[in-house]
Amino acid sequence: MTAITQYLAATGFKEFRPKAALIDMDGTLYDSMPRHADAWMEMCRQAGLDAEHDEFFLHEGRTGAATIDILMRRTFGRPATDKEKKELYAIKSAAFAAMPPVDPMPGAARMLRTLADAGITRVLVTGSGQATLLNRLDSDFPGAFSPGLRITSADVSRGKPDPEPYLRAMSMAGVEPWQSIVIENAPLGVQSGVAAKAFTVAVTTGPIPREAFVEAGASLIMPSMPDFADLLPTIL
Ligand code: CA
Fold first, then answer.
1. Which of 10, 80, 200, 222 could tie 182 with a disulfide, CB 3.0–4.6 Å?
2. Separation of 224 CA from ligand 1 center, angstroms?
3. CA of 62 to the centre of ligand 1 (A)
4. What are the counts of helices (DSSP H) followed by strands (DSSP E) for the chain?
5. pLDDT tens string 88-107
6. How far is the CA of 21 from the centre of ligand 1 (A)?
């Protein structure tokens, strides 16, 4: 498969033998991004912060704290304090929680089952600290993730696009980069997976154009999660 040949050439690895899938949550497992953007806008309205709705698709993958810091610097010309990061993220989380529940991404359950059937370890890797969705994962995707195999905003000091979240996930799963598949929907998340030297799949589930994922260095770009679920057995 061309994508694998190109991945090996780009990384210098001799082989790609997937043992673990490191999987993003928002926009990948849940069709949640439009509602997150709405919740961010509500927080900005309450805090008097300048923002545009669609920019939140590009911030996607950052920790909430990092996004709040960018908004504070832009509007007030100074970094956000730790207290502000906490308080503002609580406002954003409450706004998200008050909205109607989001749906799982079509194809995501099938993708996770294919991984499980192939004996691939599944690790959740999200910049989110949003309990609303984290608490739903086990009922929406029963048995998809082994207990404890989860990296959230609380577990990293530097969020995506830094490689730290995916490097920590690899060490948690006990795998090397050439044994890892990252599954993402956002350019910053793809950058994080690529920087961690994983085979990084971009599933374009939102409004961001394909070129942004080429630029971010994705190993493979898929137009939808059902398409990726169809192709997955040939990668494994
Ligand atoms: Ca995402």
1. 200
2. 14
3. 9
4. 12, 6
5. 999 999 999 999 999 999 99
6. 15
What phi-psi label fits residue 174: left (phi over 0), alpha (psi between -120 and 50 degrees) or beta?
Answer: left
Cα 151 to ligand 1 centroid, rounded to whole Å: 13
Residue 18: how many other CB atoms lie within 10 Å: 21
Please name which of 112, 172, 156 lies closest in space to residue 138, comparing C-alpha atoms: 112
- Going from the Cα of 162 to the center of ligand 1, the distance in angstroms, rounded, reads 14
| Residue length of the chain | 236
Compute the distance from residue 233 Cα to the ligand 1 centre, in Å. 23
Q: Give the C-alpha separation, 71 to 19, whole Å.
A: 39
Residue 227 is predicted with a pLDDT of 97
How far does residue 202's CA lie from ligand 1's centre (Å)? 10
Percent of the chain with pLDDT over 70: 100
Q: What's the burial of 120, exposed, middle or buried (CB within 10 Å: 0-12/13-18/19+)? A: buried
- State the Cα–Cα distance between residues 219 and 181, nearest whole angstrom: 10
Q: Which residues contact 98 (CB under 8 A, 6 or more apart)?
A: none
Instruction: Measure 163 CA to ligand 1 centroid, in angstroms.
Output: 15
